[in-house]
Amino acid sequence: VQLQASGGGLVQPGGSLRLSCAASGRSLDYSSIGWFRQAPGKGREGVSCISSSDGSTYYEDSVKGRFTISIDNAKNTVYLQMNNLKSEDTGVYYCATVSPTRLLCNPSAFTSWGQGTLVTVSS
User: Fold this and answer.
1) Among 1, 48, 78, 123, which residue is least crowded by beta carbons within 10 Å?
2) Cβ atoms within 10 A of the Cβ of 62, count?
3) Interior/surface letters 89-123, b for 16+ CB within 10 angstroms, e for the rest
4) What b/e readout covers 5-36, taking b as 16+ CB neighbours within 10 angstroms?
5) Assign residue 88 a region: left if phi > 0, alpha if psi is -120 to 50, beta otherwise?
6) Are 49 and 70 in contact (CB under 8 A)?
7) What is the mean pLDDT of residues 32-36?
8) What pLDDT, in 10s, does the model give residues 68-117?
């Protein structure tokens, strides 16, 4: 599967962005799909993940209530709606997938990765 991430950019604190991860090559059925963030000088961490089988989701504590992950099975695309962005949300955001599996959000478990999209939150 090939993943294409898009939607990053420069936004002021409190603003919003929607990231998209479009998959091609195979369906995202029976998969866990996630968004991972790598801040400058830090490792890659799981921000939010979703199971395409049952729609179950995971959110990292710092983004709960602000970020929403969703999947459009017809378009084979996963979205991350990010609201009330903070400076600490800055980083390169990668989407990734692994299948067949239940919900996972440990980056070491994911096998297919897209290129990153840069999110910069700054005034």
Assistant:
1) 123
2) 14
3) bbbbbbbbbbbebebbbebeebebbbebbebebee
4) bebbeebeeeeebebbbbbeeeebeebbbbbb
5) alpha
6) no
7) 97
8) 999 998 999 999 999 999 999 999 999 999 998 889 999 999 999 999 99
Is the pLDDT reported for residue 40 higher than 90?
Answer: no
| CA 109 to the chain's CA centroid | 15
Residue 13, pLDDT score: 98
Q: Which of 38, 61, 58 is nearest to 48 (CA)?
A: 58
pLDDT computed for residue 5 by the predictor: 97
